[in-house]
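User: Can you model how zinc ion sits in this protein?
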Amino acid sequence: MKQKKASAITRMGRYILNIFLPRVCLSCKEDLDYMSDDPLCLDCLSGLEYLQKPYCERCGLPLEFSRGFCYDCEGVEHPLDCARSALIYNETLKPLIHGIKYSGRDDLAKFLAREMGKAYDYFPEIKDIDFVIPVPLHKKRLHARGYNQAELLAKELAKLKGLTVITNAVKRINSTPTQTQLNREQRQKNVRGAFKVIRPDLISGKKILLIDDVATTLATLDELAASLKEAGAAHIAAYTLAREPLA
Ligand SMILES: [Zn+2]
Ligand SMILES: [Zn+2]
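Assistant: Here's the modeled complex, given as structure tokens:
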């Protein structure tokens, strides 16, 4: 009875809020149902695209045909053992990623981590881990943004899946310029020496899952994995919210 009353008040509250502050779908800008917590309307929700086979066995790059590895992974040893993503970076997902990265929408972490949680169970290859490390931000960028979106995603995902998150083992010591305009070689050079393991005692012999928002060339994740392996990590996998299909 009490609960019924509370939810009626919640409904009323939301209804009133919606009159003053109509919430719109982040993708198509149509008004959202006032009872919905999602940042997308039903139509746009169905536009989210999950990563599906075939993809490269190592880096998770979507492939046209099933052939095991992509050209960059075939026959090459990388510090990062395996990477998977929940969603393909497409036009529906783009405004959500921009929202959490550049518009202070840290409230989106819950919804986005829920999407990561749904897809996580499809990837047994990244589930055998001791703990999770979100890709750290340099403190300058952390101050500018107010939060590390990778850390928010990791913490929400950890709640859903019962994982442990460690944030004090490694830090970013280089404030690398934004990478969006750079090609693969430039990105690799850009992130060289970007991370420093400050608690090797936590890392040594461990199987670690790195969490980030978007994977493009994996340059950042590979560099972080290299630092962790140098500190004695046994196995490094990565799980990102989105995967950019390379053109
Ligand atoms: Zn929409
Ligand atoms: Zn690959």
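A couple of observations from the model: The two ends are 56 Å apart (CA to CA). Residues 47-243 form a domain with the Rossmann fold fold (CATH 3.40.50.2020).
User: Helpful, thanks.
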